[in-house]
């Protein structure tokens, strides 16, 4: 089993809109569409695959509306460890370090468990990869119209 150094992802939910992370010009990726019209990103080698993980997860993992609207409010960090097989399937996800809030922990864990990552590139071999992923979640209280005045 190979171990990958932690990747840090910062999520900002309240007021962040739908801003999508942009790929750096140096990242060599291809985009294609599947039969359902969804855009698929295809990476060319292990370095590109690893570079894409943070960008992909930050787009794929969204805080539920209930938490965004009702809290908890504040800055949270939960560390999740998990395995990824050569087909990009996530398994064995578990909380390695709690955020201190069970709702935030449960959401982050569920989000990681349901992700489907990119299949490995040909230079990555057939062994599963282990990740330890600290996820920073910032959930600011929404500003009401009365507060905005």
TrEMBL record:
Gene3D superfamilies: 3.30.1150.10. It is a single-pass membrane protein. Residues 48-144 form the TonB C-terminal domain. InterPro entries: TonB/TolA_C, TonB_C. It is found in: Membrane. GO terms for biological process: transmembrane transport. Keywords: Membrane, Transmembrane, Transmembrane helix. Its main location: membrane. PROSITE patterns: TONB_CTD. SUPFAM superfamilies: TolA/TonB C-terminal domain (SSF74653). GO terms for cellular component: membrane. It holds the Pfam family TonB_C. This is TonB family protein. The lineage of its organism: Bacteria, Pseudomonadati, Pseudomonadota, Alphaproteobacteria, Rhodobacterales.
């Amino acid at each position: 089993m190979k171990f990958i150094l932690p990747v840090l992802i910062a999520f900002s939910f309240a007021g962040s809109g739908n801003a999508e992370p942009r790929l750096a010009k140096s990242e060599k990726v291809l985009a294609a569409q599947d039969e359902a019209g969804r855009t698929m990103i295809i990476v060319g080698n292990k370095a590109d695959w690893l570079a894409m993980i943070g960008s992909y997860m930050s787009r794929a993992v969204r805080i539920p509306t209930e938490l965004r609207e009702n809290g908890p409010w504040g800055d949270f960090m939960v560390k999740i460890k998990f395995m990824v097989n050569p087909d990009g399937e996530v398994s064995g996800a578990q909380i390695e370090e709690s955020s201190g809030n069970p709702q935030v922990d449960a959401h982050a864990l569920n989000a990681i468990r349901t992700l489907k990552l990119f299949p490995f590139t040909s230079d990555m071999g057939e062994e599963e990869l282990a990740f330890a992923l600290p996820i920073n979640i910032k959930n600011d209280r929404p500003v009401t119209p009365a507060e905005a005045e």
